[in-house]
Design brief:
7-stranded mixed beta sheet, single chain, 23% strand
């Protein structure tokens, strides 16, 4: 799903500057937009995924982590993490000449969850990112999506030391319904991130949730 502003996604996402070289504007023919959430627990790779996918330099609301978060945010296995999203990440993909897709990344920590209702309003679906080294951290997010009736897919972010499980075992451990897709990607790799999004959009389309008008 190369965007209307990008003929082909590069093999690997660029750095923190995002995937766009400068301001890019929607074509005047675009008349509609759809919203997809990118959600998951703290430190799972939501900001990275939005940055990999967005055709524009993503809007980020990251703040440097300070001593005030000590004992609140668990940095086990995330020793190199120095910032955290406090409001949202925002990215955009032009799907075709008439339709744009907006990506809204949610904060991971529960203390920022009052923002959830506003960010999720009007979303067609959600990509729920999971770190299999800490699957229990995803239970609250997955439960919240189920409570709100938001269609979602589980996206396993494949870190170098991510353990491997049979899908049936993983589905059982996360208590997922049979119709919830389980997808895999390295969120740092733009091609893998695009493949993930293509599979999710196809899932929404096949279930008559998203109509892609040409």
């Amino acid at each position: 799903m190369a965007s209307a502003n990008s003929a082909e996604a590069p093999a690997e996402a660029p750095g923190a500057a995002g995937s766009a070289a400068g301001p890019q504007y929607l074509p005047s023919s675009v008349q509609g937009a759809v919203k997809i959430l990118v959600t998951g627990p703290f430190g799972v790779g939501k900001t990275t995924l939005v940055g990999s996918l967005s055709e524009i330099t993503p809007l980020r609301t990251e703040e440097t982590m300070t001593a005030a978060s000590s004992g609140v945010d668990d940095l086990t296995g995330r020793g190199d993490k120095t910032t955290t999203t406090v409001a949202l990440d925002f990215g955009r993909i032009t799907l075709n000449s008439r339709l744009a897709l907006y990506l809204f990344g949610t904060p991971g920590q529960q203390r920022f969850w009052p923002l959830w209702d506003d960010l999720s309003r009007g979303a067609l679906g959600a990509i729920a990112m999971v770190d299999l080294r800490r699957p229990d951290e995803s239970f609250d997010v997955l439960g919240r999506l189920e409570e709100q009736g938001i269609p979602f897919a589980v996206a396993v972010n494949t870190f170098p030391d991510t353990p491997s499980y049979p899908e049936e075992e993983l589905r059982s451990a996360l208590d997922l319904l049979p119709d919830v897709p389980i997808l895999f990607c390295d969120a740092r790799d733009r091609r893998q991130s695009y493949d993930l999004l293509i599979d999710f959009v196809d899932h929404l389309h096949r279930n008559s949730i998203l109509e892609l008008q040409g």
